Amino acid sequence: MKRYWLLFSQSVTLLLAAWFVVGTLRPQWLERSASPAVVPVLQSAAPATTTAASSYRSAAQAATPAVVSISTSKAPARNPYANDPWFRFFYGEQAESQPQTGLGSGVIVSPSGYLLTNHHVIEDADEIEVQLSDGRKAAARVIGTDPETDLAVLKIDLDQLPVITLGDSGQLAVGDVVLAIGNPFGVGQTVTSGIVSALGRNQLGINTFENFIQTDAAINPGNSGGALVDAQGRLMGINTAIYSRSGGSMGIGFAIPTSIARSVMEAILRDGKVTRGWIGVEPQELTPELAAYFDTELREGVMITGVLQNGPAAQAGLRPGDVIVDIAGQPVRNVAGLLAAVAALPPGQPARLEVVRRNARQQLQVVPAQRRAAVPAQR
């Protein structure tokens, strides 16, 4: 019995030694004999679908072809004494001044070749050249401008033009994602992103009529006249100005809403200019102090502190101390709203004013005159 046990022990020892050697030097031999295991099948990963939260490529691809670069040039002013022999004797032959050049952006809004840009981009320019994102270039002519909103309409003669989709800027809300597209510093077409920081910005001293969209999307010199679009690539505004101490973006930029740009463009295409109403009043925001002084319980509206003698408002019976609360069915809540509502009135056509005088509402009929264009603010 002892002999058999010794033989068994030696056999097991030899088998274990052989298994160890094979497992160390040829482990694949053991795997072949093992029972088949479930092996996962590896497949090529499908391209990840980017969402609006991670990428705005679809908005950029939809809008960028319609955003153009605008180059302007202006002939230099000739020195009036250049031909004077005594001037040449003392100052010598002075080299001719170089033409003044400028850079900006624009947005194609019609297959017929109409573009929107800023008035200050093409102001006093002798030549205007537009370059598309596909490399095509064309000379542009000015159809009309509106310095009071800093807008201009240009036209180019090219075929198969990309056109941007006009959005409803009235649907924008603070916090919405927006993209600014333009040609900053002349480096080429650039897309920057941000959010709507504020709406209805006014009293900035930039334009006569101000109702700006404020954004933190990087806007720099050269972006003027470019597009501010939403996450679907729809035009929400025309970039026009920045707040800056250095000349570069500091996170505060302003755009003219599409609602204003559309009405200005339609007026220019229809009449060649923008015609606005005027009634001759001096308005002021209705503050608690003014309300107490004039003994009114109103908290919304515009206080009239002055009325031009023999002006449309005076002829309609408007007096200092009246509070305008409605013009032609449009509620008036602040001075900017009053200016916009009056400007929208057709000159020569009677319009209804609703005013509050000594806490009593009255209806007045005013016949607005045509507003004279104001001198645009210096930038």
CATH architecture of the largest domain: Beta Barrel
The strands making up the biggest β-sheet line up spatially as 5-4-1-2-3-7-6
Count structural domains: 2
Main structural class? alpha+beta
- Determine and state the CATH class of the largest domain: Mainly Beta
Secondary-structure element string: HHHEHEEHEEEEEEEEEEHEEHEHEEHEEE
Radius of gyration (Å): 35 Å
Low-confidence residue ranges: 33-52
CATH T-level topology of the largest domain? Thrombin, subunit H
Biggest sheet features: 7 strands, antiparallel
Question: Level of helix content?
Answer: 10-25%
The amount of beta strand, in percent, is 25-35%
Tally of extended strands? Answer: 21
Dominant shape: elongated
What is the average of the pLDDT values?
A: 81
- Terminus-to-terminus distance: 113 Å
What count of helical segments does DSSP give?
9
Which features would summarize this protein structure in a list?
379 residues; 9 helices; 2 domains; alpha+beta; Thrombin, subunit H; six-stranded antiparallel β-barrel; single chain; 22% helix
